[in-house]
Write a structure and sequence with these properties.
Elements (H helix, E strand, L loop, with lengths): L3 E5 L4 H12 L3 E6 L18 E4 L5 H11 L3 E4 L6 H6 L1 H22 L4 E7 L22 H20 L3 E6 L2 E2 L8 H13 L6 E3 L5 E2 L2 E2 H12 L6 E4 L5 E2 H11 L8 E3 L17 H7 L7 H17 L1
Parallel strand pairs: 1-2, 1-4, 2-3, 4-5, 5-6, 6-11, 7-10, 8-13
Antiparallel strand pairs: 9-12
Helix pairs in contact: 1-7, 2-4, 4-5, 6-8, 6-10, 8-10
Bound molecules: NADP nicotinamide-adenine-dinucleotide phosphate and guanosine-5'-diphosphate-alpha-D-mannose.
NADP nicotinamide-adenine-dinucleotide phosphate binds next to helix 1 and strand 5.
Length: 320
């Protein structure tokens, strides 16, 4: 018999790629979806007839219990979060409630409703924050630099503790930044490629950004969801860094993206203090050696290809 998976955050970037991957593998896929005045299903429209949606919210325990009872999942992928670092300073309590306490609600629900389900927690390189060593690995000390970062550290340790206390098969994927044409528009990569496409089509004349010196280890979301799945196929739960092992600055991303449409970025980019954060994560660079060794996982899409893919998709989208 095929397996059943429940994905929280199925309407987000990663949720949509993961749902497609699991359908390809023959899973029955359930997705937790929260009530919004206008449903946000644009990323999963192409698979709506193949998945089951269950209403629920990470801040509401009974809805999570109901989702677990309905889906009876073999695997639970907890991808839902208030995931935008910038917003976490404006909404620190909500961010803690959803991205931190929400993890405990998921774990409680698994403990009581489907104890044998395997759980994936969307942990993050933001936990390394002001990095204590370069590159960062599974043993690097955390030093979060935002309400989002410290909420995720709480969620991470909740998973470790439920694994040790209750023998729940729960793994943390410590994923470094991953992007795609489905990336939310407020994240820097997509903000850049969307603006480049607008400028190219004569729909905009400038791009306002914050810190151009920040460096990130950027990969492709389509590659990273494979690592999530692989973690839950292991006999033993564990924690894994998932990254490319390369780092690039926001400036490099900008240069390449403008180059793609034959424009000089310096004529269009304006540095705006509004987009500079109260505390910055200056440099992220992950060491994915453990994921390669244990999971046999490696990223396929490299930085230049990722930038090209995203610019191309936005140029095409806007030409319609
Ligand atoms: P995303 O596109 O922002 O998606 C977030 C998802 O969470 C959306 O489906 C959203 O639903 C849902 N959500 C938000 N609040 C919720 C709530 N209270 N109850 C239920 N669902 C809620 O994020 P992503 O890039 O796919 O990232 C997936 C996960 O990986 C997140 O936990 C993120 O923090 C983590 N992560 C991401 C990266 C990255 O680079 N992308 C790296 C490391 C870790 P709506 O559509 O209704 O808003
Ligand atoms: N969003 C944004 N907008 N970021 C900007 C801008 C701007 O105008 N200008 C410069 N940046 C810089 C930010 O200061 C940050 O250093 C970097 O670009 C990346 O910002 P984001 O794309 O917003 O991502 P993030 O690194 O803060 O967080 C993402 O990656 C994490 C994993 O490391 C999110 O996906 C998190 O959910 C994820 O955990």
């Amino acid at each position: 018999m095929g397996k059943t998976a429940l994905i929280t955050g199925i309407t987000g970037q990663d949720g949509s790629y993961l749902a497609e991957l699991l359908l390809e593998k023959g899973y029955d896929v359930y997705g937790l979806i929260r009530r919004l005045s206008t449903p946000n299903i644009s990323r999963i429209e192409q698979i709506l007839d193949k998945i089951e949606l269950v209403e629920g919210d990470l801040t509401d325990q009974s809805s999570l219990d109901n989702a677990m009872r309905t889906a009876q999942p073999d695997e639970v992928y907890n991808l839902a979060a208030q995931s935008f670092v910038g917003t976490s300073w404006n909404q620190p309590v909500l961010t803690g409630d959803v991205s931190g306490l929400g993890v405990v609600r998921i774990l409680e629900s698994v403990k009581h409703q489907c104890h044998d389900a395997r759980v994936y927690q969307a942990s993050t390189s933001e936990m390394f924050g002001k990095v204590q060593e370069v590159p960062q690995s599974e043993t690097t000390r955390f030093y979060p630099r935002s309400p989002y970062g410290f909420a995720k550290v709480y969620g991470y340790w909740a998973c470790v503790n439920y694994r040790e206390s209750y023998d729940i098969h729960v793994s943390n994927g410590i994923l470094f930044n991953h992007e795609s044409p489905r990336r939310g528009i407020e994240f820097v990569t997509r903000k850049i490629t969307d603006s480049v496409a607008r400028i190219h089509h004569g729909l905009a004349s400038e791009l306002r950004l914050g810190n151009l010196d920040a460096k990130r280890d950027w990969g492709f979301a389509g590659d990273y969801v494979k690592a999530m799945w692989l973690m839950l196929q292991q006999d033993q739960p564990d924690d894994f860094v998932v990254s490319t092992g390369e780092t690039h600055s926001v400036r490099e991303f900008v240069e390449l993206a403008f180059e793609e449409v034959g424009l000089d970025w310096e004529k269009y980019v304006v540095v705006d203090p509004k987009f500079v954060r109260p505390t910055e994560v200056d440099l992220l660079l992950g060491n994915p050696a453990k994921a390669k060794r244990v999971l046999g996982w490696e990223p396929k899409v490299r930085f230049e290809e990722l930038v090209k893919m995203m610019v191309k998709a936005d140029v095409e989208r806007l030409s319609k």
